[in-house]
User: Fold Amino acid/polyamine/organocation transporter, APC superfamily from Longilinea arvoryzae.
Amino acid sequence: MNIEDHNGTTVVRRVGDYKPKPSFSTWLVGRPLQTADSAQQTIGKFIGLAVFSSDAMSSVAYAPQEMLIVLAAAGVAGYGISIPLAIAIVILLAILTLSYEQTIHTYQNGGGAYIVSRDNLGEIPALVAAAALLTDYALTVAVSISSGVAQLVSAAPVLVPYRVLLAVAMVIFIMVVNLRGIKESGSAFAIPSYFFIIMMVLTVGVGLVRYLALGSLGHVIDPPQDLAFDIVQPVTIFLILRAFSSGTTALTGVEAISNGITAFKEPRAKNAGATLIMMACILGSLMLGITFLSHQVGVMPSEEETVISQLARTVFDSRGVFYLAAITSTTVILMMAANTAFAGFPWLAALTAADGYLPRQLTYRGSRLVYSRGIAMLAGVAVLLIIIFQANVTRLIPLYAIGVFLSFTLSQSGMAYRWYKSGRLKPGEEVAERGSKLHHDPHWWVKMVINGLGASVTLVVTLVFAITKFVSGAYIVISLIPVLVLIFLAIHRHYRSVAKVLSLDHYGAPPQISRNRVILTVAGVHRGTLAALRYARTLSNDITAVHVSIDPVEAEKIKQKWETWGDGIRLVILDSPYRLFLEPLLEYIDDIDSQRQMNDIITVVVPQFVTPNLVTNVLHMRTADTLRNVLLNRKGIVINEIPYHLD
Amino acid sequence: MNIEDHNGTTVVRRVGDYKPKPSFSTWLVGRPLQTADSAQQTIGKFIGLAVFSSDAMSSVAYAPQEMLIVLAAAGVAGYGISIPLAIAIVILLAILTLSYEQTIHTYQNGGGAYIVSRDNLGEIPALVAAAALLTDYALTVAVSISSGVAQLVSAAPVLVPYRVLLAVAMVIFIMVVNLRGIKESGSAFAIPSYFFIIMMVLTVGVGLVRYLALGSLGHVIDPPQDLAFDIVQPVTIFLILRAFSSGTTALTGVEAISNGITAFKEPRAKNAGATLIMMACILGSLMLGITFLSHQVGVMPSEEETVISQLARTVFDSRGVFYLAAITSTTVILMMAANTAFAGFPWLAALTAADGYLPRQLTYRGSRLVYSRGIAMLAGVAVLLIIIFQANVTRLIPLYAIGVFLSFTLSQSGMAYRWYKSGRLKPGEEVAERGSKLHHDPHWWVKMVINGLGASVTLVVTLVFAITKFVSGAYIVISLIPVLVLIFLAIHRHYRSVAKVLSLDHYGAPPQISRNRVILTVAGVHRGTLAALRYARTLSNDITAVHVSIDPVEAEKIKQKWETWGDGIRLVILDSPYRLFLEPLLEYIDDIDSQRQMNDIITVVVPQFVTPNLVTNVLHMRTADTLRNVLLNRKGIVINEIPYHLD
Assistant:
């Protein structure tokens, strides 16, 4: 305990020694953590690559496949186009990597699209970025988990009927893990990430060696035929662009490192930047390798067996140990990709909520120091998506990536504008912004061009995506984002108006209350009523007992008892011909209220039965509860509840 | 307004001139009625027969059919047994009619099984009767409506897939009609009841004339074959008894008149008795006639077409006007039978609730002067039964009638015991009981034998029913009734203990409160807090402001603002390391509570945000609500909620 005295006001400070008790939820989620336990541990490039790249790298598990599914409509002629498309996507990756390198060096405290847009483009673009990202985090979970289940099901087809169930179970598992709070810096991440990288490099490597050097790479044995089209469509520009859009989902997750720069060891910008480049190289190679080999071995895109599964069993010649290792590592990395969304979504939601655009509750950290509400919210939305789209990756893909590319565009435009502003500053001049400090950069022109290029190409991709995927699902996201932005703005308006109403600026101290008119509601004369009467007497000398009478016999009894027990206090009996309870009472209160003077206050004293348990509650009318809820909405009335315990 | 003065206490009496406003529910249910509108209108024998016999007479629509369905298992050999069984049931009806004649003359204010058992057998038998009757009212609705739908579907087979939906819609329709309040004495009842009687007499009459006099009655053309059994069972005693049990469902509803004696014109016992005998004659004739003719024309019991439908189209030679009239009248009478349960159930529930065995709310009459809650409860249970048993009469029948016969047994045993008591009184001696007056009856011995016979035969039927239908569903009712009785007793115990706790007998006036320790919870320092502080100052000089601190920065801000605005009142900051809000506060209150003197009271003042609408509510933490709910359960604490309106 610590007692201080400030300007005549005593302030006592003490630490509650309340320790949460063990319960089912502490067992499930882990023992509660003190706020002071929150620690920061930094990581190097090796672990950093594992932690931040699962989202990006795991997308090679579905991006080539979704590209091939679109091309399948054009038959054999179509498949060949996958290789130039993969090259285009890798070029796009290179541009993005360069752009984000610059973001990382500028926003060393974390430079997500929301922060960059907020600093450089203003409120609406920042909210658009937030809406796009929140939507895409939910889709990341749905797509990654659905793809993970698809891998699992390829290896064990007996599980096909349980796809949706498996996917939901995985989401719940990842939710619980995240509610427990995972150390992002944990080296536990390194093992599955590197396992995946090794298995993919091995698959692609062995495949290339067998194809180029040994010439022993055969074709897929007994490929699935469920997507074979009877009528072959011509190869149109539209088809190519649709396939390209599907392929660009490989680039989702590239921004992850720029959000998490603070997790890196110093010099953090340099380390984070190097990690980004490493990640891009691996991702690009795998994308190219998988697409190339898939074409060579004659993979048939299918909903029954994934491209990775067909490729792996062809490269390793059987469903043996290597095949199983490749599939397992892919499933695990996809689950980890979903997991990164569980870090990103609650963090961004809390950031947006702290700015007043989402309910404040989202900024509150639960017993394990994680944003529990955001985590639960994300899991709920993801489960909903999985159920609606039946854990089908191909049906989810048209919704996915458009938000990512929109946020890329906003983030890169913000950076480009920032360089322009930087160019207009004098050397040595410095301007503080909310997320960073702005100063003159001699190479501002080059940097502006790089980020401008990033912004332009991602804008083009966003438009291509929106147009080619509009009917098959993109329209949902395109219409959802403005709705979300409007909701953010409405919430912000509400909080601002509340703050204004509550503000003490230019506020004189309220005048003293001169008279307290007390109304005591009497349903019957018993010990509970007398306890309330006793309390009412401490409030004021102006007390009126009011009984709403439905049954005249009962009213007569109350009148007689009140004469004995009512302490001489005036009793008003309100006859209610329609057997209503609340309305006549409210009408009476209105009467009193209309005579109220300035600085008068009306207090309604309600004797409140408290029964020992919930079951017995239903045996009582609970009119006190209803009365409270109604009276709370009337101005100038204070409600005093005098509990009377029945046990 | 009316002001009186009694022993120094002013009592003001006024009639609320609040008139309920039109709304969807007043449109649906009708304009509210004043309590004074409740009027009593009496009826003669002609209308009385129509009002009280729909339940009993409508059972000829399913009783013969259910008997035949059981016998169908024994093939052609079985059907013949239906005629002696029908005769046995008619004999049973005669015994019951004699017994109830005596009940009617004794209990001229209404002599349901609950009242008779309560007067003569004690609490537990009365509760068993109540449980049995309440269960059976619900089953009456389910069985009658399901049978009504079956008739409808027989005439219009296209409706077969919508059976359950139709049945649920009918229950809801009858519920709404009853919530509006129907005049039981309305001659509206007479038309459909007499229409049914005429159509049935016509069907049976034409059938008999064609069979006996003209010899022109043929066989059912193209009878349904869905219940044809491949393996024919032998005719066993068990099978016969099962069929008999099914047939006894014809007797449900016979007790209706004894419940409703007060509705009859004076001399009401005589009128009611005569009506009972008339009803028994019609019911008995129809039961015999339908069973006999069904056998002659070769009706095949079926779930697709009812016995009534097969019989009517054979007697009238086609699906013409007479056939349609017969089916329509049967459907309507079955709906009216369900309707009588909607009068009986809420009335019995209110009676039981008034005795303290069911929640008191059931005694409350709604805006239309009907027991709305009982009506809604019955509809809910009936809909549940219809959905569970898929509106299938054959599956519902094993649950039905056992409760009716159990209540017959209790009621008749009560009457028999009553005659025994009457025989032991001296002539002219009179004993007042709750439901009637008991005096010496010179013929007590004869009357005791008659009621004793009624009790014995209904007991035998109850046992036969319980044994033969146990597995197919009776076990549900047999185990439900004792559970219900235990619930009734538990509710009674609760109300008794509450009355004891609240009783003012031997109660001294509570001592004055000597000190009020006020705790003001402070989440932030704003206008709402100051309004609460202003109110707190009227309560006591002993005020402590308490802030539970999750965020130290926030706590520091509050401390500084409090120094300016806190009026010198002590501020306690409770640091909450686990970011819990309630627990540290409760711990603090416990501390204060442990120092509390006799006649001290603790008041917790909670500033309560009130947002203009529900949507904005979710944007606030609503900790005040949670706090209130928790504090209500702690003794010796009063909660003052100071609303602060944000609009």
Observations:
- The two ends of chain A are 36 Å apart (CA to CA).
- Chain A is about 60% helix and 10% strand.
